[in-house]
Amino acid sequence: MPRRKRYQGAQVCQHIFDRGINKMRIFHDEKDYAAFIHRAFDFAEEYEIALHAWVMMSNHFHFLLTPKNPRTISIFMQKLKGSYTQHYNKKYNRSGTLWEQRFRQLLADGQRYILELYRYIELNPVRAGMVKGPRQYHWSSFHTNAWGLHSYGLVEHPLYTLLGSDPDERQANYRDFIRRSFNVEASHYEAQCKIINTARNQIAVYGDEEFHKMLSAQVDFPLVSYTRLVNMALADDEDE
Predict the structure, then answer these.
(1) Alpha-carbon distance 163 to 73, whole Å?
(2) Nearest residue to 40 (alpha-carbon basis) of 5, 14, 12, 79
(3) In the chain, what's the furthest Cα-to-Cα distance?
(4) What three-state secondary structure class fits 149?
(5) Distance of CA 82 to the CA centre of its chain
């Protein structure tokens, strides 16, 4: 089976997703979660990658990040996954790979798309039925982006900063944005979640047509557009 293509450009925000082989649990206790996220921030700093949002579930994780330099995302992920595999295998007396496959990558631009990815990532535990609200789940960036809890290495995306002129205003407006996913924007939020999930097996673009055209001109493989993702999600609905 051919290896999945990768977008290797710089200064493009990306949603990265990966999980354990056969969907196995990869985080068993607080020390596992801490070991992984501390490594993530250390490697992100080393390779000049801005980490904007994250969540760690029992068998997978999501990142929203932006690389400063080209060809660093794959190195960052290789180092992170390899280092954590060594930790895990030593701790649990096992050998071999820990990860299901190469990571999935969704390229994003525009405030409404970037903020949707913030919300998608940080509400993952709520969608999974683990908690009623994101504040009840410890292992995510929600506590920093919504409440200002200090987090070593987390970097606000420039489009997140447009939510307010100072941290308090940004956090208040972000909390309101999160709350709207449970009421006035519930149907929109659910539709966007389905579209984002549809992109998991694609190299796709979560942004407008101009952004899609710009990125497509940089690569020698097809990038699925947002319009195509919407149509695929609608087709899935019709098949259900």
Answers:
(1) 27
(2) 79
(3) 50
(4) coil
(5) 19
CA separation for the pair 112, 144 (Å, rounded):
20
Q: How confident is the model at residue 201 (pLDDT cuts 50, 70, 90)?
A: confident
Query: Which amino acid is residue 78, in one-letter code?
Result: Q
Q: pLDDT tens for residues 4-36? A: 688 999 999 999 999 999 999 999 999 999 999
pLDDT at 101: 77
Is the entire prediction scored with pTM above 0.70? yes
Query: CA 38, CA 153: separation in Å to the nearest integer?
Result: 10
What amino acid is encoded at 79 in this protein?
A: K
Domains and CATH numbers, the chain: 13-239 (3.30.70.1290)
Complete DSSP assignment for 184-203: TTHHHHHHHHHHHHHGGGS-
